Amino acid sequence: MLTVDFTRFPVAAGDRVLDLGCGAGRHAFECYRRGARVVALDRNGDEIREVASWFAAMREAGEAPEGATATAVEGDALALPFPDDSFDVVIVSEVLEHIPDDRGVLAEMERVLRPGGRIAVTVPRYGPEKVCWTLSDAYHEVEGGHIRIYRADDLLRRIRQSGLRPYGVHHAHALHSPYWWLKCAFGVHREGDEAALPVRAYHRMLVWDIVKRPFATRFADRLLNPVIGKSFVAYATKPQLRAAPRAAGAAERA
């Protein structure tokens, strides 16, 4: 289930891509399939090892085109182990809401992104997220949980302050908002057979939707995204370097 829309945020073969806070690796895998040179980074060593094993399985199955590469790295989003201007594309999906120093993460993203490169940032949307917080303290008051709720204008302002230029936004995963509202209402930590019947039933529908992608649910998701989309997605570019102006004397002699 991808949050970044790759029709609005194209990744080409050979692009150097950083999936920052990659989690289970969903966006890293998609970029790898598109022929990119991917680095998936996360501070969770267990997840990084799992992502690395999936990269290996994809290589073995021939799912990535010739020339594509993929590496999984354990690291800190506030101290990225890469030189300046290392990547053409940086993705940070559902990460910033977990980190106290989100401005520091955006500054590191800007540092490692080459001039002219593009970033995609996704966070939980304010309205649906506020409902979850209202229904359940356990939803966010956990170790590593969500520590803030972003308004769209606030996130875009922080992106601009980091030296990046937003160029597009949208919402995603409308059908997932009611699922999380049900989870929060009936017990967010109740999983599997312990979950309430409405939660189990809705989860089955979501799995069916993800696997089968029927027209009816895809249409409903697109229709409802502007209203209750679970995620807010922003795209931005890093400005190209400008040539330094010539000295006045040199201009006069020209």
Automatic annotation (TrEMBL):
<keyword id="KW-0489">Methyltransferase</keyword>
<protein>
    <submittedName>
        <fullName>Methyltransferase domain-containing protein</fullName>
    </submittedName>
</protein>
<dbReference type="InterPro" id="IPR013216">
    <property type="entry name" value="Methyltransf_11"/>
</dbReference>
<feature type="domain" description="Methyltransferase type 11">
    <location>
        <begin position="18"/>
        <end position="120"/>
    </location>
</feature>
<dbReference type="InterPro" id="IPR029063">
    <property type="entry name" value="SAM-dependent_MTases_sf"/>
</dbReference>
<dbReference type="GO" id="GO:0008757">
    <property type="term" value="F:S-adenosylmethionine-dependent methyltransferase activity"/>
</dbReference>
<keyword id="KW-0808">Transferase</keyword>
<dbReference type="GO" id="GO:0032259">
    <property type="term" value="P:methylation"/>
</dbReference>
<dbReference type="Pfam" id="PF08241">
    <property type="entry name" value="Methyltransf_11"/>
</dbReference>
